[in-house]
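@channel sequence for tomorrow's demo:
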Amino acid sequence: MTIPVPPQPTPTEEVTKPPRRLIGAATLVVLVAVVVIALGLAAWFRGEANQLTGSAAAGNDALVDADTTAQVSRQVRDAVQRVFSYDFARLDDNERAAAEVITGPFIQSFHQQFARVRELAPPQQAVVVATVPALAVKVLDGDRAIVLVFLDQQAHQGGRATPLLASGRLAVTAQRVNGSWKIADAEPF
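C-alpha cells (generated this afternoon):
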C-alpha cells in the first residue's frame, strides 16, 4: 500500500516592494537634478545670447538688412565706376556724372584729382574704363556705410594698341543723401 504523501508547499519567491518613502525620495532627487540641469542650460543660453547681442556684429545692419545692403552695393558700384572712369573727349560730362554720386569731403578731393586728369588726358587721348569686379559692405549703420571695393581700370591711349591695366582696393565711406548712397570718402587699402 502506498501512503499518500502530503502535498509539499512549493517555494514561492517573495516580491518585496520598496517602501513608499524610498520611491518618494528617488523621485525628489530626479526632479531636483532635472531642475538644476534646466537652470544651468538656461543660464548658459542666456550668456550666449548676451554675447551675440553685445557684439559689434549685432549693431551692423549689413549683416541683417539684405535689402539696404544690396542697395548700397549697387549704388556704390555705380558711383565708383563713374568717379574712376573718364574719356578725354567728354571730360565735362564725366565730371558732371561723377559730381552726382559724391558728397562731403570727397567733393574737394575728387575735383583736385580731376584737375590733374584734365591736364593729362587730352594730350594722351586717354580713355579710362573702371569696373568693380567685387565689393562687400563691411559696415552699415543708419545713413553711413563702409564698403570694401576691388577696382579694375583699363586705360586706352591714342596710338597704343594694348590697354594699360591697373587694379586696386578702396575702402569707400558711403553716405545716404536724399535716399541715394554717395561716396563721402575713398581711401586705398
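heads up for whoever presents: The mean pLDDT is 88.
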